[in-house]
Amino acid sequence: MKKFRLFTILLFIGFIANAQEKKWTLQECVEYALEHNISVKQSELDVEAAEIDKLDAIGNLLPGLNGNASNSWNTGLTQNVTTGVLQNQTTRNFSAGVTASITLFDGLRNYKQLQRAKMSKLAAQYSLDKMEDDITLSVANSYLQVLFAKQDLEVLKSQNEVTLEQLDRTKQLVDAGSLPRGDLLEIQATNADEKQRIIIAQNNIRISLISLAQTLLIKDYENFDIVEDDYDIFGTEILDNSVYDIIERAKEERSEIRIAEANKEIAEQNVEIARGAYLPTLGAFVNYNTRETGANRIDYINPPGTTITEIGYVESTGETVVTESQNPAVPISLPPRPFIDQLWLNDGISYGFQLSVPIFNGFATRNQVKRSKVNVRRAEYQLEQAELDLEANVYQAYVDATGAFEAYEAALVAEESQQQAYEYATERFDVGLTNAFDFSQSKVRYENAQREVIRTKYDYIFKLKVLELYFGVPVANLRF
After folding, report:
1. Which site among 338, 383, 406, 480 is 20 to 30 Å from 228 CA-CA?
2. pTM for this one?
3. pLDDT tens for each residue of 306-349
4. Is the dihedral of CA 379, 383, 384, 389 positive or negative?
5. CATH class held by domain 64-103+281-294+335-356
6. What fold is seen in the domain 32-62+106-280+357-477?
7. Is residue 469 classed as helix, strand or coil in its secondary structure?
């Protein structure tokens, strides 16, 4: 039993350690965000709601079938359903019916509503696509910020290791009297400054990780971390296209334009639906109904024998004229028939057509048509504005990507130059031809050049991805 408990504890500890060691890749972060992000979930609900509206529109084209039943008790002066005579009584009455109806013509409004519902669902899907694109870019940007912060820290640590080596060597030379004490103090100040920047860089990593975790709706900030991959630069071939080619491609592919176009079509469908109210509405129906009552029924019986009745006399002879007739029927009260028997004896069918012709409704239809036309013009302006905004955004993204590429290339050249200058300064400092201050300044410049290469690299990668999305590259096909 003790062995089993020990095994369980070790297994649990191993599970916790494994959970803490998990590091997220960019692809995992994107997939997790798309699955759990609240904005994405809301957009998915909009798509579901649009699908329900579409089913409603389809249902309007189908026949309607309704059943009804009622059971009531009447006390006092009520009509006897068997005789039609008003009388004081207490009775129970049951009735049931089924009615089927269908709209044969309604100015094509139901058909237009179905077309509008289909377009509304399409617009909702476009909005979901745009939301997923935005979330993907946001996650990618946050992820790259973490990578930049991590690699920035590595640069600072690497440079500080060099500083510590120089500090140890300088201390030995100062103790031997080969270098002035000021050089040692300068190296110590540089080391202290680098330690401070390392602490700041570590805090920046934590802040960047928390920001990314919040984007993913992950609350375990302490154990959240990412895979420290060194992402390459892909997709540079997109810059071979002119900005105008990218703009035209974006107008065909981007969800912003598709949403605006869908909204315009929806507005146009609303005009057609409003115009349908000018036309008559024709419907057909068929109804089956039956009833049953708990009241006693009245029946008539003919008693045996006949009755002789004098109807006159013969004037000339004085003879009496009589007639013989069957005894009149006598009403008798009988208990009600069985429930099922009454239902099939008292049933009936009615059917027909219903025509409704609009004549005057206080200008409501005309005003609705005008209102719908105004909305069409508004949707046209929104589409035009969306195209203008897209052109501006694509042009800005193109300029940003081009500028980021140039900044990255310049940073590489600067890094190479600062590396050579730093190596030269190191050689001079090692032989005592330069002081510690000049050496520290050269080292700082080289360090800053390394950090600038990292910053411009990830900035360039992100801006390339933005441009690729505008060019119509699906989110799943973005290369990092």
Report:
1. 406
2. 0.76
3. 777 777 777 777 777 778 777 777 777 778 888 888 888 888 99
4. positive
5. mainly beta
6. Outer membrane efflux proteins (OEP) (1.20.1600)
7. helix
